[in-house]
Design goal:
Elements lengths: L5 H14 L12 H10 L5 H14 L3 H7 L1 H8 L5 H18 L8 H4 L7 H12 L8 H9 L10 H11 L8 H11 L18 H4 L1
Helix pairs in contact: 2-8, 4-6, 5-6, 9-11
């Protein structure tokens, strides 16, 4: 259940639309495959750090076969500045091999198939479907988990990413579903940060549950 009134909720969505708009992901990519690799690498890492690492990687391997041919050790060299790079390199190679063997080298277009790929969970699959194909799927990351409570979109009874995703899917009007993840992620990244939030610059002050307390 939402903490705020419906009128406030619609006002918030309009304000997000005005301030952020229907922006795309800040991850750089060349094609669907490279976006999936970038999303995989972005777990527990900043988009900026991923973009730095993939700039050279995608020049030499921008498709599954080229990545497999590059090999695990070389992939590690390209992404070594990113946290958990050993495990992520292994996932990239395994994902690439599976795309070749099971999907004719093409990135699948369903959540079910995407989640079969090594390193791709539900959140990542939702992000991929939303970014590449415009589907109204909602990726729930740490920013989203934090801000749905802070902004009064839902109460503390919603605890897991799956619960938050389902509730957002229920309450968000269709026109805003393709954009709500980016609204919350970018707002959390640049304004309502977990550490040192920019409260003086915040355009969502009137909805903030912490300020109300």
């Amino acid at each position: 259940m939402m903490v705020m009134k419906k009128s406030e909720f619609l006002e918030m969505l309009c304000l997000f639309d005005e301030k952020i708009g229907p922006k795309k992901s800040e991850l750089n990519y060349k094609n669907p495959y490279t976006f999936a690799v970038a999303v995989l690498l972005s777990a527990q890492a900043t988009d900026k750090s991923v973009n730095i690492a993939t700039k050279d990687l995608f020049e030499v391997a921008d498709n599954p076969r080229a990545m497999v041919e590059l090999g695990l050790l070389e992939v590690k060299k390209y992404i070594r500045t990113i946290g958990l790079f050993n495990a992520k390199a292994k996932h990239i190679i395994e994902m690439s091999e599976m795309l070749i063997s099971d999907f004719n080298g093409e990135l699948p277009r369903t959540r079910e198939d995407l989640m079969k790929l090594s390193g791709i969970g539900r959140k990542s699959a939702n992000v991929i479907l939303n970014e590449l194909y415009g589907e109204p799927t909602i990726g729930v990351d740490t920013h989203v988990l934090r801000l749905v409570k802070r902004l009064g979109l839902m109460g503390d009874e919603f605890k897991t990413p799956e619960e938050v995703e389902a509730e957002l899917d229920r309450i968000i009007p269709e026109k805003y579903k393709p954009f709500i993840s980016n609204y919350l992620v970018l707002f959390g990244r640049y304004v309502c940060r977990a550490k040192n939030p920019k409260c003086d610059e915040c355009y969502m002050k009137k909805f903030c549950q912490l300020l109300k307390k």
